[in-house]
Amino acid sequence: MGRRKWVFLLAIFVFLLSFSSGTVLKLKSDDSRPLYNHTLTMTLVEYASAVYMSDLSELFNWTCKRCNGFTKGFEVIEIIFDVEHCLQAYVGVAKDLNAIIIAFRGTQEHSIQNWVSDLFWKQLDLNYPDMSDAMVHHGFYSAYHNTTVRPAVLGAVKRAKESYGPNINIMVTGHSMGGAMATFCGLDLVVNGGEENVQVMTFGQPRVGNAAFASYYSLLVPKTFRITHDHDIVPHLPPYYNHFPQKTYHHFPTEVWLRDVSSLNHSVEKVCDNTGEDPTCSRSVKGNSISDHLRYFGVELHCETWRQCSIVMSHEMDRFSKKDSKGNLIMSRTVPSTNGNKTESLIENGDL
């Protein structure tokens, strides 16, 4: 009996010790789904945070105060700033991950209240091309597909692969609406770009399509994790109506729910099931917090100021930048050519 008592106490000690890192991970799922990697998540949330920086000079040179930690040494290849639609993204290479990183900015916080209100009423309104019965949110789809963002991103990915090799991984991330754009980007790279090594990780993203779309997406981009935070309101939007499963918005897997445990003074991660709508994860609580939406793992995911769609850039960066007639901006830098000869400019003739 005494031995059993000590075994029980030891088990409790090991359990409590596992909390000291701030996480409890279900690292392996019950099926063939990819493993969840906490360290990679902590890295990508920093990339998702950096895209909110308005000083494009610091972002381009990766010297901003959010360009530290796990992301040191990152090389920005291209920054896209679409002033017409208030969108921002960047593409670069993380040599430590052997990966191209693509990051999309979310909705700026000055307008998030109105944006959330609109999402309550938003209906599925676009048939996704060549996917039977798949419907998606027109606004999220268009933000990626029908702006300056898509051609700039795809062009930067192509040039990065020419320089760093065709087998380099591609990791796409974003927060809030940026997560929705990351979803369409990852799918685009697989379906239209023929890419195989694509991973997507989003933070606080809304639902983007119906159940049919979620099924197609999870099949085509299986290396995907949606991180949700406690009572974050945005992953609950647009609403999911369980009485109309095929006609309503539906998340794709795999959700990782980050819960704040006040009694333990840290957060716990739970890898959810493969349905996309696990009732024991974020759907088990009310989505009523904007503050939970703006911070993940202690990392701020919003702009530093509340100014609408504004940027700062030094004149010395003009040689890297190009604008179109609407003020949309692309900043590109040179990268080593594959044969080691003189570097080539990343600014190509095109729409901009």
What is the CA-based Rg, rounded? 21 Å
Please name the fourth-level CATH homologous superfamily: Alpha/Beta hydrolase fold, catalytic domain
CATH topology group: Rossmann fold
Total count of domains: 1
The CATH first-level class comes to Alpha Beta
Beta fraction:
15-25%
Q: What is the helix content? A: 25-40%
Strand neighbour order, sheet with most strands = 10-9-8-7-6-3-2-1-14-13
**Helix and strand run:** HHHEEEHEEHHEHEHEEEEEEE
Shape-level CATH architecture = 3-Layer(aba) Sandwich
> Residue-averaged pLDDT, rounded?
85
Dominant shape: globular
First-to-last CA distance: 77 Å
Given the structure, what is the number of helices?
8
Flag low-confidence runs: 1-30, 339-352
Description:
- This protein is α/β, with parallel strands linked by helices.
- It has one domain: Rossmann fold (3-Layer(aba) Sandwich).
- 27% of the residues lie in helices and 20% in strands.
- The protein has eight helices and 14 strands.
- Strands 10-9-8-7-6-3-2-1-14-13 form a ten-stranded mixed sheet, sandwiched between helices. A two-stranded antiparallel ribbon has the order 4-5.
- Strand 9 and strand 10 form a beta hairpin.
- Helix 5 packs across helix 7.
- The relative contact order is 0.16.
- The N terminus and C terminus are likely disordered.
List the topology elements.
Blueprint: H1 2-19, H2 38-50, H3 56-61, E1 75-82, E2 87-94, E3 99-104, H4 112-121, E4 126-127, E5 135-136, H5 138-145, H6 149-164, E6 169-175, H7 177-191, E7 198-203, H8 211-220, E8 224-229, E9 255-261, E10 266-271, E11 295-296, E12 299-300, E13 321-323, E14 329-332
Helix pairs in contact: 5-7
GO molecular function, one term: hydrolase activity
Signal peptide: 1-22
Domain Fungal lipase-type: 101-240
